[in-house]
């Protein structure tokens, strides 16, 4: 790894009287400033930890309760119904603990207990309110009276300025759906895909499973749901992601694009400097827990757990299963940059502060101007993270456990994130119909050796100033990386196709399907989706050693069409109707099956919908370009039908 020359903190000379240390005053100044900054961070984290721990109350409310209780005591009114006296009798009497001191301390202890009880009560009420799901199933633009009352209550109990993790203790547990509901919904979903004979056979094995052994498996899942806040997440991460032995490039990682029409600057180093600085500011807020939590309708809080592994995190391969380097050292102050086959370790702080964008630009420009050749084995080293997990795990154990290799790998894996200064230019070109395809391919896999696919995310900055991100999927879903992206970018997404609010203009089957699809994803949003439940039942069956023909058949079915909808404008930073040039191009992912499609679709405002479609060249049955043209034609047909109805 190419290391930057670093200043020496001190000099020493050997004399007959011993070693004479000559400390550098400038370096000592920076050491002092770094220490001050570190203690400031700890103080802020402690303060925010207290604020989060007592939310939705506040520390000042404790003082109000104490003053109120003390006031009643001096008015000779006992609101505790004798509890303060009982606390007082349990306190020892000494020269330091007078009767008066006992009375005051007893009142403070009672007030504190009352205050904590009030906090737990508020959290319980908020948790009960957040278990209400009817609002999700109401038609767009319509809201029932009960939902309006519910929203008011949630808003009142949510406090005024919640921090990122303020709602974590108030979120309800993920409910376990009933066996009957899951099987019924599964059969409904596969009915259009099976002929009568196949469906009858599936119905038979499903009903047999429902009688036995499903009830045994369900009991274990319910037990886990009482113990863990989410009965799915740890198993999903372990068995779907970390135990997978296939390459994570294309098969798991996903990408996010830059703004579609706007490039703030065409200078590669300048764009990199600005984006990296913005990410460091975001990381500082994240570490302190000062980010605003994501909230549906601007009110209903979302879980913030996945944010914890955004920075300084790397997925580590194993022979049988993988694991993570967690952000145990969140204060690591460096970034690893890859350019033309060389690795550079870039320091991000100076004198206890973030480097300014201009300072970062200078460092990146020096890297771009560096004409040195890669060291032996350096050029395609990242390709190890692109291939099968087992060879990478074995190579890691064999070649990266000592010496310079170990130190270099540790620098990569503990870095804030990975940055590639790409030597290609990409982005939307209206004169090149394939420009966005090439842009997407570059973000998804690049040259297969110029992204560190194990890193939580790789930031790619192209030579024309365009940017993008390749994200390792196991640590988070796309809304989390999108939240960060919108902080320093603007709305993201590809090949725009206009559409109207379709449900008002369709009275055909292109509406029955849409309504059914909406109901299914709303069920999934409320914890009643079928795939996670069936997956967890299967894990229980394997642990118990009980074979289930139904579960085996369900989970072995090929999923040739994998779709995902990415939320847009989570932060409402800009009105894209007024500033349409600031629309983004979104993101996408690879197909799940070798002969299938991966489709990411994003609804942007009221007049724009975008699609990212991927398939593998190795399959003669798939053609993502043709698939995209069919979708586009379908959208145009729907618009024509809508216009026809308006004329009628």
TrEMBL record:
Swiss-Prot/TrEMBL keywords: Acyltransferase, Fatty acid metabolism, Lipid metabolism, Membrane, Mitochondrion, Mitochondrion outer membrane, Transferase, Transmembrane, Transmembrane helix, Transport
Cleavable signal peptide: none
Pathway: Lipid metabolism; fatty acid beta-oxidation
The reaction(s) this protein catalyses: (R)-carnitine + hexadecanoyl-CoA = O-hexadecanoyl-(R)-carnitine + CoA
Location relative to the cell: Mitochondrion outer membrane
Keyword hit for Membrane: yes
Membrane topology (UniProt): Multi-pass membrane protein
Superkingdom of the source species: Eukaryota
InterPro entries: Carn_acyl_trans, CAT-like_dom_sf, Cho/carn_acyl_trans, Cho/carn_acyl_trans_2, CPT_N
GO biological process: carnitine metabolic process; fatty acid beta-oxidation; long-chain fatty acid transport
Transmembrane segments: 60-77, 104-126
Alphabetized Gene3D superfamilies for the sequence: 6.10.250.1760, Chloramphenicol acetyltransferase-like domain, Choline/Carnitine o-acyltransferase, domain 2
PROSITE patterns according to UniProt: ACYLTRANSF_C_1
Gene Ontology cellular-component annotations: mitochondrial outer membrane
GO molecular function, one term: carnitine O-palmitoyltransferase activity
Function in brief: Catalyzes the transfer of the acyl group of long-chain fatty acid-CoA conjugates onto carnitine, an essential step for the mitochondrial uptake of long-chain fatty acids and their subsequent beta-oxidation in the mitochondrion.
Family classification: Belongs to the carnitine/choline acetyltransferase family.
Designated name of the protein: Carnitine O-palmitoyltransferase 1, muscle isoform
Native source organism of the sequence: Cyprinus carpio
